[in-house]
Inverse folding.
């Protein structure tokens, strides 16, 4: 007799070499006080690590409470680049001196897109795909309006993403900048970063990569791939907490060429001189503007360290196993109710979430949340199963898929 989904999940958890790390997270299924039956939204907000509570408490009493304003000189002013280098080493495949923490994703995307445009004077077009994340699309439209440029839209399916063929057809001698996502927020499509980057470079353009849905869950080698610029958030797979600041990567040889448009005092070469005129700081610090969000940067250090301990290759292997199991169960348990897999089936083309489509999923997701099963919904009819490899178990996936089946069954009765 074939094993049930729960039996297979238990077997997979028992064989999972990363299962032991789940106990390090607040509210993991290893906890007897777990209020959530299945948390399947780690691609939107990661669980906090237990060590983060101690880190934040110690900061209040020791670093902030004891050192007071002396903390700026002693440590805090260096945190954007210190943590940026930690992140680059653990997850981005980038050498030191190219990554900065600070601002929101939106602000950093604005900075790097504007800087890239200014580095390609005389070119009139920005390329972005139609199913890119809304922030990216809105920013491109706003910047194009601001600079009297043209947006070259690439029509992509909401079940896949930007491919080399589609980008090649849109590029021209007028292309200044391409804005693309490493992992599509809706479908989970994993773009071929090296191939698309080469195409942009062959056309004389710069490319900006959005890493929000990949950083911390997918192997990334920014230096090896020749990436120009990248931005990503830290509250998803990097577990920095709600509203934690984003990061920006600028390839080393571009740092002396690009100038970002928001000239704040801490991006100045000598901020405490407070003199007239703006001289950008050397290196990646030139992309800083205002005061570093010190408290907002603290939580991500624990997750960055954990990824460094485990290795991003192992994290990616667990991600592939989780998403493959999700698709397997969706085909077995949910397809009879009309559910369709709206993510790539090939693991090499898929990030760390799986989207399932059904006309009733908006209402069903709200129902699931009330019952302690937490995926998320993306219009028009997508239920996203977000799988954070170090905190999500195979049993949670089985629990979640069973809850979706039960909700569909009740509606069909």
């Amino acid at each position: 007799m074939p094993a049930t989904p729960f039996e297979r999940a238990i077997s997979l958890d028992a064989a999972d070499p990363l299962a032991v790390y789940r106990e390090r997270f607040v509210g993991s299924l290893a906890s007897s006080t777990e209020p959530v039956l299945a948390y399947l939204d780690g691609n939107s907000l990661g669980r906090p690590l237990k060590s983060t509570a101690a880190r934040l408490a110690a900061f209040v009493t020791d670093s902030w409470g004891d050192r007071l304003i002396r903390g700026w000189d002693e440590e805090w002013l260096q945190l954007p680049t210190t943590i940026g280098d930690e992140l680059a080493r653990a997850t981005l495949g980038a050498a030191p001196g190219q990554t900065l923490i600070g601002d929101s994703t939106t602000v950093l995307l604005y900075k790097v897109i504007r800087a890239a445009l200014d580095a390609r004077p005389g070119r009139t077009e920005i390329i972005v795909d139609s199913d890119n994340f809304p922030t990216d699309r809105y920013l491109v439209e706003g910047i194009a309006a601001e600079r009297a440029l043209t947006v070259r839209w690439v029509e992509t399916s909401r079940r896949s993403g930007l491919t080399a063929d589609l980008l090649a057809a849109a590029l021209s001698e007028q292309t200044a900048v391409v804005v693309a996502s490493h992992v599509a927020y809706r479908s989970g499509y994993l773009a071929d970063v090296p191939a698309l980057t080469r195409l942009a470079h062959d056309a004389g353009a710069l490319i900006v990569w959005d890493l929000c849905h990949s950083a911390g869950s997918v192997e990334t080698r920014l230096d090896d791939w020749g990436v120009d610029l990248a931005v990503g958030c830290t509250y998803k797979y990097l577990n920095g907490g709600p509203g934690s600041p984003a990061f920006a990567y600028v390839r080393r040889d571009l740092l002396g060429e690009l100038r970002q448009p928001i000239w704040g005092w801490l991006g100045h070469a000598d901020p405490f001189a407070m003199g007239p005129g703006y001289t950008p700081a050397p290196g990646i610090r030139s992309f800083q503007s205002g005061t570093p969000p010190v408290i907002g940067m603290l939580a991500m250090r624990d997750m960055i360290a954990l990824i460094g301990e485990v290795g991003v290759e192992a994290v990616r292997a667990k991600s592939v196993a989780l998403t493959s199991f999700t698709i397997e169960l969706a085909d077995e348990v949910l397809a009879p109710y009309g559910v369709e897999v709206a993510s790539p089936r090939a693991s090499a083309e898929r990030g760390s979430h799986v989207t399932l489509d059904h006309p009733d999923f908006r209402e069903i997701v709200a129902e699931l949340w009330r019952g302690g099963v937490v995926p998320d919904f993306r219009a028009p009819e997508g239920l996203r199963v977000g799988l954070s490899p170090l905190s999500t178990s195979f049993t949670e996936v089985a629990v979640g898929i069973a809850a979706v089946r039960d909700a569909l069954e009740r509606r069909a009765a």
